[in-house]
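Hi R.,

As promised on Friday, here is the backbone we talked about, encoded as structure tokens. Could you run it through your design pipeline when you get a chance and send me back a sequence?
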């Protein structure tokens, strides 16, 4: 973990959580885990809070525990609901060097954002606008040229190939999945 003297922007960072909303009146937060390592959210863990692009503050977790498929946590210095509300939508980051190595057919969600999505026959469907991480399966949110969106489950049945070199994801969709 970088200390306060190190500029976080000088290293590659990975998002490990997204703050969804406050919980209760004492500053607790509901966080969507973007990491498969639950230890990331243990009491005493240090994470970088991305307040704005390139603007990071190191925070220390007081409490971190599973809560309805998400993480319920408290951050030192966040003592009430109003302070917690200000953090809604922000990301918790770690240096990439602290990340676990990826297995075969595993990808960082942030690496998929912006990739082009094409049909097996080659027709362009759109670009990945977001990856929604869920316990059952992750979803690719694809934005089409006209601005509409649709979701593709990130499973082999639908996602046939992810080429990180050309930044193209090839999919096989069933009728009605895409607009």
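Update: got your reply. Pasting your designed sequence below so it's all in one thread:
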């Amino acid at each position: 973990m970088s200390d306060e003297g190190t500029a976080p922007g000088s290293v590659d960072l990975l998002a490990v959580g997204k703050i969804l909303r406050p919980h209760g009146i004492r500053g607790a937060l509901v966080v969507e885990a973007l990491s498969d390592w639950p230890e990331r959210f243990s009491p005493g863990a240090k994470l970088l809070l991305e307040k704005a692009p390139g603007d990071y503050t190191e925070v220390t977790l007081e409490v971190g525990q599973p809560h309805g498929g998400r993480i319920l946590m408290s951050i030192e210095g966040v003592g009430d609901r109003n302070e917690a509300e200000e953090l809604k939508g922000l990301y918790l980051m770690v240096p990439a060097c602290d990340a676990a190595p990826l297995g075969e057919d595993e990808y960082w969600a942030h690496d998929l954002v912006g990739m082009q999505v094409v049909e097996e026959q080659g027709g362009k469907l759109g670009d990945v606008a977001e990856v929604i991480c869920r316990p059952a399966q992750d979803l690719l949110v694809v934005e089409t040229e006209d601005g509409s969106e649709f979701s593709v489950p990130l499973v082999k049945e639908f996602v046939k190939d992810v080429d990180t070199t050309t930044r193209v994801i090839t999919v096989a969709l069933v009728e009605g999945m895409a607009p």
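One thing I noticed while checking it: The chain has two domains: 9-98, 109-171.

Thanks again,
M.
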